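User: Here's a chain of 376 residues. Predict its fold as tokens.
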Amino acid sequence: MARGKSSVDPAELEKLEWPYDWPPPWRNGKLAGHASAERALLAAQQSGKLHHAWLLTGPRGVGKATLAWRFARFLLAGQQGGLFAAAPDTLDVAHDAPGRALVDARTHPDLFHLRRTLHPKEARIQNEITIDDVRGLGEFMHMTPSMGDWRVAIVDAADEMNRNSTNAMLKVLEEPPPNAVLLIVAHAPGRLLPTIRSRCRRLALQPLADDTVIRLLADHAPGTAPEERRALARLAEGSVGRALELANAGSLGLYREMVEVLATLPELDMPRLHGFAEKFSRRGEEANADWRSFNYLFDRWFKGLARSWAVTSEDPPIVAAESGVHRKLLAAASLDRWIEAWEKIARLLSGADPPMNLDRKQTVLNSFLIFQSVMR
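Assistant: Prediction complete.
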């Protein structure tokens, strides 16, 4: 469903929305690892008592949006059985099914895609879902379906709504119309208003198994070597979206360099540290991608340190230099001191993001120096 006018070419607009090499959720016909969630939606539809609002939760990148689009495609273009037809046992929809092409193109008249939209003055996607984005949703939900039995709205993602748009969404949920379904994707549902959560049926998607992530990496990032896929799957912790982002940004190499610097503690190889930190003095989208990867990888590595303390053993190393580093750090100081250090580092890292925009290179240097101070 079209919303507003834009001077940006549709292909360019989609690239701004989805700047990745793999298919976006609205054109991804495959979903792996969530058969039970699919069965729950299918059973709800076949019961004749489909709930009007669903909250699809789970870690970012595990397939929540892909599941939402699969269900939307099924409701709007699928053969849902009838008097003489057998009820379907999957959400699969034939490629040539009437209406499927419209759903995949997001132009189906009974479909509403609520997401961050184009900035009114700049060629970029806005940081939030605004109240203006939500205003048309209530009207859409109460219209009569044009091509079938259902109207479907997908919110991707609810985490990106601001206070005003969240309140507007609540009004939509308070007056659910018949034959309309709202599918809300949420990475952190605890941040949503309790009144929104209470009006939705929750369907939680779990992290994917490493084997599933590896298989999907082979499909969507065939240029990665098998050993890289295994390492990326472990780094991504069950999120194929995260694994693909890390692969696209070359983050495995970044992780290897980071761990090699950490392995020199407590003395720290300062020339190596400065060389590593220099990566973050650059500007531009590639540098921003490196910075996002570093934040995620550093946080993930520290969680591994905490796990090593809890189970008194280290995770198997992802890169060679990682072997024994956790044990060395935990032998030098208590976990409480490491957590205190991590809290300081987390504040430092957040200061290098807007609106403060502190120097990223110096932030990285200071972060490693905080770790060094704990060991001395």
